[in-house]
Each structure stands twice: as C-alpha cells, then as structure tokens.
Amino acid sequence: NRAHIFDKFNAWKVGTPFGGGVLIIFVVTILTIWAYGMFSIEIGGWDFFVIFFTFLGFGLLGLYDDIKKLVNLKKTAFFGLRLRHKFAIQIVLALIIATALYFKLGYSFVFIRGIGLTSMGFLFIPFAAFVIVSFANAFNITDGLDGLAPGLFLICLLAFLSISTTAVDPALGIFIAFLAGSVAAFLYFNIYKARIWLGDVGSLSLGASLAV
Questions:
Q1: Which residue among 43, 90, 163, 201 is least enclosed by CB atoms within 10 Å?
Q2: pTM of the complete model
Q3: Where in the chain are the domains?
Q4: What is the mean pLDDT of residues 8-36?
C-alpha cells in the first residue's frame, strides 16, 4: 500500500505540531496589504498577481490537507488528502499559473547552458506546470528535516530580494521582504530540535512560489 510507505517515511514527524506555514501566509498577506495601502503602491502588474495567486492557492490546498490530517489523525498515520486528489488539484493550479505566465506575461522561453534562451512556444505551459508541481512536492519532502526547508528558502529569498530592488519593483520587493522576515522568524522554531513543521500549508505554498 503506497499510503503506508509514505506514512512510514513521515513517521518521525508524528508528535511535533505541523501547519506552522499558515502563520507565514497570514502574516505576509496582512503586512503586504497594509504596506501597499500605507505607501500607496500600485499592484496592477500581472507578475505580482501570479506570484500571490501561487502563494495563496497552494497554501489553501495545503491548509485543507493539514486540516484533514488533524481530523483523521492516527498515532502512526500522517496523511490527509489522497495522493491522486492532491496531485490533480496541484496540476490544475499549476496549469492556471503557467497559462497566466504564457499569455499575460509573455514567458515562453527557458535558459539552456551553452545555447542560451530558447523559446518553447505553447509547450512552455505544460513544462512550467511540471516545474511548479515538482518544486512544491520537493519542498514538501524537505520539510521533514530540521531547518532545511525554511533555511534553503530564506537563502533563495535574499537573492530574489536583491534582484527585485535592483529592478526597482517595490510591489514585489515588499512582498519578498515580508516573506523573508516571516520565514526567518519561523526558522528559529524549526531548527534542531524542531518544535513545529511548516506542514503542507507552508511547504506547498513556499515551494510553488519559489518555482514561479
């Protein structure tokens, strides 16, 4: 039974609170909305909407999965949604995001070392969806090791924050800054021995956002 295999893989998580990622999503969303209103920052660009939709969309999926775990939690089980249902919803969300990247932002290219930028045309949509789903689930796996998921994500965020300030993108820069601060605060409680896990709500949201 595949479910029992994954339950065994996540057995060490049992007994430690999970779902801490909901705090990150809540804090970042509230502070971002407050900052945009306070500083009258325009957020009309599709780039911000795509990232924020990814952040909240995958977060809500993970939150539902975490709630199911709490309701149906057994001493040795660590499962919420069925795998096929979870993957199906992830694929739908990823396709919506990839379609927006292609049609609204004009992304259809990838960088191949030695060749440079290469246009994929319409194939960019399934490719981008695959990358988003892969990142989300890979990040979900790293949440099982103390400090690994938020630590790696924080390193990436600092690079993206530098790029956003260089590109003079205040809307995206403020969002990334609040996200980095929230993840850094969470990291304190996630390092050895972890007192809380991100849960699916945090790992799916952060992983998919990192991919985008």
A1: 163
A2: 0.85
A3: 17-103+130-211
A4: 79
3-state secondary structure labels for all residues of the chain:
CHHHHHHHHCHHHCCCCCCCHHHHHHHHHHHHHHHHHHCCCCCCCHHHHHHHHHHHHHHHHHHHHHHHHHHHCCCCCCCCCCHHHHHHHHHHHHHHHHHHHHHCCCCCEEEECCCEEEECHHHHHHHHHHHHHHHHHHHHHHCCCCCHHHHHHHHHHHHHHHHHHHCCCHHHHHHHHHHHHHHHHHHHHHCCCCCCCCHHHHHHHHHHHHHC
Longest dimension (CA), the chain: 54
107-144 pLDDT, tens per residue? 998 888 788 888 899 999 999 999 999 999 999 888 87
Q: Report how far residue 137's alpha carbon sits from residue 122's, in angstroms, rounded to the nearest whole number.
A: 24
Residue 202 confidence (pLDDT) above 50:
yes
Write out pLDDT tens, residues 41-82. Answer: 776 678 888 999 999 999 999 998 888 877 765 544 445 567
CB 198 within 8 A of CB 21: yes
Output the average pLDDT for the chain.
84
One-letter identity of residue 60:
L
Looking at per-residue pLDDT, the higher value among 36 and 211 belongs to 211
Q: How far from 95 is each of 55, 90, 127, CA to CA, in Å?
A: 15, 9, 9
List the beta bridge partners of residue 109. 119
Phi and psi for 127 in degrees, rounded to 5?
-65, -45
